[in-house]
Amino acid sequence: MLADHAADAPILRLDRITKTFPGVKALSEVQLALYPGQVTALIGENGAGKSTLVKVLTGIYQPDGGQITVDGTPVSFPTAQDAAAHGITAIHQETVLFDDLTVAENIFLGHAPKGRFGLIDTAAQRRMARDLLDSIGAEIDPDTRLRDLGIASKHLVAISRALSIDARVVVMDEPTAALSHKEIHELYDLVEQLKSQGKAILFISHKFDEIFKIADRYTVFRDGQFVADGRIADVTEGDLVKMMVGREVDQIFPKRTPNIGAEVLEVVGYSHPTEFADIGFTLRAGEILGFYGLVGAGRSEFMQALFGITKPSKGVTKIDGQIRVIRSPAEAVNAGIVYVPEDRGLQGAIRPLPIFQNVTLASLNRTPRKGFINLANEFALAREYTKRLDLRAASLDTPVGNLSGGNQQKVVIAKWLATQPKVIILDEPTKGIDIGSKAAVHDFMAELASQGLAVIMVSSEIPEVLGMSDRVIVMRDGRMVAEVSGPEMTPETLVRHAAGIAEATL
Amino acid sequence: MKQLIKSREAILTAAIVVLLGLIATRFPAFVTPGNLAAVFNDTSPLIILAIGQMIVILTKCIDLSVAATLALTGMVCAMINVAAPGVPVFVIVAVAIGMGMALGAFNGVLTWKLGIPPIVVTLGTMTIYRGIIFLISDGKWVNSHEMTPAFKALPRVAFLGLPALSWLAIAIILIAFVAMTRTTLGRAFFAVGGNPHAAVYTGINVGRTQFWAFVASGGLAGLTGYLWVSRYAVAYVDIALGFELDVVAACVIGGIAISGGIGSVGGAVLGAIFLGVIKNALPVVNISPFWQMAISGSAIIIAIAVNTRAGRSKGRVILKKTEAEA
Q1: Cβ-based neighbours of B75, under 8 Å, separated by 6 or more
Q2: What is the pLDDT of residues B36-90, one digit of tens each?
Q3: pLDDT surpassing 60 at residue B299
Q4: What is the pLDDT of residue B266?
Q5: Which H/E stretch holds residue B215?
């Protein structure tokens, strides 16, 4: 730690914290110190381990190794209540509060003031809530139902709740992600106020401008490992970006010589009233086009519109030069576009149905006798594509729910390939899977492209985007901000465009 | 899971056989072929309705308005017969099916386009349809002597020793079996209930599929409405009152998962027959109607307990991976 703060001992210190999930080391001997009256920014790419750290801090996950100390005393947080009892509280990205309770009830849920007979003293609860809200300058009626508040007001309620348990450490996980410009400034004021009360604040954000505005210190994580920490005053944005992304190439991507063919897909001027605007690009057969951006940049939203799940306000899709109107997923599949969504558990396989029915589900409408199924043809189709994906299962009659996660994924991909698509959209294809499976997915993606399929890959992992794509489109706040290819494809360029940092600062 | 359903059908068949065996010890005449055929005939309306309900439940919906649909269609059929005795019976049957489908379509549209939960929609239409019967009939009965002989005869026409009512039920079982296993719409019913999100991405319109499930259930309820009124030769506001609960019970006993996506035509049919045997046998062996209700109720709870146990997963396989990690 820095010498000039030696006297100023941290409230909370994490030392050599390790957390392993099956197949993934989410945190590897990381350290973090939070000081009273100071804001520490935690910086790292998606998947760097920030969320895991927050969960360890708040008692939701138990670390496998390492030590947490509060005021120099070793502690452990077996439950979320234990973390709260030590004065640690978190305000999450999507506030975890109860929509149908009132503001006062939300603030005091679990530690409400009790009156006679151990019943909740609602009058005292309301009064105390009023005082807390006043203290942070929030003009919110404690009797309002939370449902009726905007997201910024909900944050204020969450902060009041944090104050009500006399928190000393406040974790803010991307608190500004859903706020308007004005609301963000009100939040900054509040952070200043918390600082002046001597609270230690951990501020997680992807936005460099706000980190430089309110943080006193920084800690950088990369791939679950501690990289560096120090005082914000001593670094520039460029330094932080380099710490964030600067890595040895520790993942090997399949070598491929792109065999790029004719133009398959052209998108012109796709816009949506609230989610994205002016998206336009072309895609050729055999090409892998990466879509990079911060979480919430509108990439998945655009893909869902392209696939016909949501309706764009304007825009044109051309397949093989022909304009195709896509108003539903069925029309997208017919036009030759398929979408493998991010959450394969929720959106992928139909678990009670057997393998063969899952594989053929999206292709049934193209059977010769429309509306009727020929079981022999159906089995033949299922056998062909399960064989192609090397899916080993006792029988094609097995319900998909009985298969392992990897095999379920193969079933989902087989389903899409069976429709013989021209364009395949893969949304975060390797999110949450271990390194070995990642490599398999990457090989497979390369194989698809080499067979002449046009691939769109949405990914938030820079190595994957750079390792797999022939070209990368970067999105920020619902717009395309850059299209890079060849030597321009560097980690710094992507991060700079995605976070909106001017070139001069690097 | 498919093996499981198969075995569940086997269990149910075994349960029915054991039940018949028990009854035979007290009242051997019950298990004569002639009487069993009569029991099947008596259970036919329940079988037809249970098949419709099964389709609806498969898509994560429920149709509480089946009995009211049945009663309303039955009343309309009876009134047409009274007002225009010359209208041939096959026209009346077509009207019954068409009207049932229209009433089902109304449920379906409310669910699909307005996004109202099906249990609320059909609870509402159940009351509305009963109310309409009262409005069009002024609460009066249509009695046997007002109906034409042809109108009353159809369910009773015997063919190869079985009445037409039984044959209709058998035909519907076969059609439903083919529709559920060999058509894209049948497959869509399973997909929509099994994982609605995945179904959307596969290009299946979830709302429209649910709509067709309601139309199917309504159509079958409409047909049953004519059969019911002509068989009992009477139509009034309260016919088949509360029968929707028997229909749902038959589905649950037959292993149709209330959460959707799991079920079979065979299960629905066996569930209906199980209830039908209980209802027909208990009075014969001199057990009071209150016991009948308790036994039906117990059968439902036992069936749900079996379903839940079977559906519970054995926990995720994590251990092996951790070993590999270490």
Answers
A1: B133, B136, B137, B142, B225, B229, B235, B236, B237
A2: 999 999 999 999 999 999 999 999 999 999 999 999 999 999 999 999 999 999 9
A3: yes
A4: 94
A5: helix B206-232
List of domains in chain A: 3-245 (3.40.50.300), 250-336+421-506 (3.40.50.300), 348-420 (no CATH)
- Residue whose pair of structure tokens reads 């000393």 in the numeric block: A168
Q: Would an 8 Å CB–CB cutoff place A351 in contact with chain B?
A: yes
DSSP H/E element including A13: strand A12-21
- Cβ atoms of A12 and A88 within 8 Å: the answer is yes
Q: Which domains does chain B have, with CATH numbers?
A: 2-23+43-310 (1.10.3470)
Paired residues of A316 in beta bridges? A268
Instruction: Write down the ipTM of this complex.
Output: 0.77
The neighbour count for residue A384, using CB atoms within 10 Å, is: 13
Q: Calculate what percentage of chain B has a pLDDT beyond 70.
A: 92
**pLDDT < 50: residue spans in chain A:** 1-7, 248-249, 504-506
Mutate one of B202, B318, B320 to test the A interface: name it (highest A CB count within 10 A): B202
DSSP, res A51? H
Q: Are residues A232 and A41 in contact, defined by beta-carbon separation less than 8 angstroms?
A: yes
The answer to whether the beta carbons of residues A399 and B4 sit under 8 Å apart is: no
Q: Is A20 on the interface with B (CB under 8 A)?
A: yes
Rounded CA separation A414/A412 (Å): 5
Nearest chain A residue to B179, by CA? A372
Instruction: Please compute the mean of the pLDDT values over residues B164-171 and round it to a whole number.
Output: 95
Q: Which of B203, B185, B53 lies closest to A328 in space, CA to CA?
A: B203
Residue A408: half-sphere exposure toward Cβ, Cα within 13 Å: 19
Question: Exposed e or buried b for every residue in A398-413, given b needs 16+ CB within 10 A?
Answer: bbbbebeeebbbbbbb
CA closest to B261 among chain A residues: A352
For residue A411, the Cα-to-chain-centroid distance in whole angstroms is 25
B319 pLDDT above the threshold of 70:
no
Q: Do B201 and A339 count as a contact with CB atoms less than 8 A apart?
A: yes
Cα distance between residue A297 and residue B263, in whole Å: 42
Altogether, the residues listed in chain A come to a count of 506
Q: Tell me how many residue pairs between chain A and chain B have CB atoms under 8 A apart.
A: 97
CA A136/CA A134 separation, integer angstroms: 5
Tell me the per-residue pLDDT of A131-163, one tens digit each, with 9 for 90 and over: 888 888 788 899 999 888 877 788 888 888 877
User: A392 phi and psi, to 5 degrees?
Assistant: -105, 115
* Nearest partner of A349 among A406, A404, A400, A284, judged by Cα: A400
In this structure, the number of other CB atoms found within 10 A of the CB of residue A505 comes to 12
Q: pLDDT tens, B123-140? A: 999 999 999 999 999 989
* Chain B residue numbers touching A368 (CB-CB < 8 A): none
Q: Which long-range contacts (CB under 8 A, 24 or more apart) does B142-146 make?
A: B142/B75, B142/B78, B142/B79, B142/B82, B142/B229, B142/B234, B142/B235, B142/B236, B143/B233, B143/B234, B144/B233, B144/B234, B146/B78, B146/B81, B146/B82
Which residue, among A104, A136, A133, has the nearest Cα to A121 in the 3D structure?
A104
- Both tokens of A53, joined, read 């750290």
C-alpha–C-alpha distance, residues B94 and A470, integer Å: 62
Q: Do A362 and B202 touch (CB under 8 A)?
A: yes
Beta-carbon contacts of residue A90 (< 8 Å; ≥ 6 apart): A54, A57, A58, A170, A171, A172, A173
